[in-house]
Design brief:
Length: about 300
């Protein structure tokens, strides 16, 4: 079955990408599978300058998921360009850089640094991180800021595909989706983590030093599916589904509601070979359920009259 997916000039050999922050810079997962099997690799979030991230502890397990407050720890964009990108098989798999900055001007500057990098197929703009005090979710909750940041990135991104990653921590995801589209986004990806919290009754302390953290994993899948469904209806640009995907069935649920492709996050921590296997598992499952092609299946959800 033809698993190839192409949208807004971004070519993926199949609809499986790995989600930012859960797959390192890609090479960390090379021992577990063939990176070139994936449709795309979204690298961990990058900022102009290196960031230390939030204090520990910053990860805790929850029923059916995890909470994290990493705070975009990363070695900075120059490190990515000089030390990570050259070792990735970017000629054979789409490498997508995930961008984090504190304001629209800085987002634009970061996009400009990556615009000339041949090995980068697309820029994913993180306007949705709940774990940083400045920028982050504040952008993601304000449609005017989403449009402004998107415009700034588009202005400096050259001919790179710009994917805007939305937060579910909003009242109306459709409004945010439209703001990104109006700002010139080539596609949307959603969802980032849901705002959450865990406390320890014996220590009488929060489980995460940052107190509030981001919930991911199977626990968030129904929310993610609803958000993707609403975003697909709200805009004409392509949508990439993310949130709690832990099986081929999960991935196809997102495609059924109209997602072009999917990203796999927390499942990479539990099963480092998960994303690689998912490619074949989706193909097999499509055949089993009687779909003739990925394109025919996409968005074919039958709603009650
Ligand atoms: C430890 C961790 C770090 C993350 N870092 C980033 C990041 O740097 N940039 C970003 O856009 N999303 C980041 N995310 C969010 C994921 O990319 C994804 O949107 C979210 O986890 C939901 O997908 P999942 O349920 O499959 O994990 C991170 C998630 C986790 C669990």
């Amino acid at each position: 079955m033809d698993m190839h997916v192409s949208f807004g000039g971004l070519d993926l050999k199949n609809p499986v990408m790995t989600a930012s922050g859960t797959f390192g810079f890609g090479m960390e997962f090379a021992p577990y599978g063939d990176l070139t099997k994936l449709g795309g690799i979204v690298a961990k979030g990058l900022s102009l300058k290196p960031r230390e991230g939030n204090p520990m502890p910053r990860i805790t397990e929850t029923p059916c998921g995890m909470l994290n407050a990493i705070g975009i720890q990363n070695p900075g964009v120059e490190y990515f360009i000089t030390k990570a990108l050259p070792y990735l098989p970017w000629k054979k798999v789409a490498v997508i850089a995930n961008l984090y900055a504190c304001d629209a001007a800085e987002f634009g500057e970061l996009a400009g640094v990556l615009a000339g990098e041949e090995g980068v197929a697309a820029l994913e703009v993180n306007v949705s991180c709940p774990n940083v005090k400045e920028g982050g979710i504040a952008f993601g909750q304000d449609p005017a800021q989403i449009a402004k940041v998107t415009e700034a990135v588009k202005k400096w991104a050259g001919n790179k595909h710009v994917m805007v990653k939305l937060s579910p921590n909003v009242t109306d995801i459709g409004v945010c989706a439209r703001a990104a589209a109006e700002g010139g986004a080539d596609s949307l990806s959603l969802i980032n983590t849901l705002s959450g919290m865990a406390v320890d009754i014996r220590k009488r302390k929060p489980c995460i030093a940052n107190v509030i953290a981001g919930l991911s994993g199977p626990a968030i899948k129904p929310v993610a599916l609803r958000c993707v469904y609403q975003a697909v209806k709200a805009v004409d640009i392509p949508v990439v589904g993310i949130g709690g995907i832990a099986s081929a069935e999960d991935a196809l649920e997102f495609i059924l509601v109209g997602a072009q492709a999917v990203q796999v996050g927390t499942a990479n921590f539990l099963r480092p070979d998960f994303a690689f296997n998912l490619v074949d598992e989706i193909e097999t499952l499509l055949g089993e359920i009687g779909a003739t092609s990925l394109d025919d299946f996409r968005g074919s959800l039958q709603l009650p009259l």
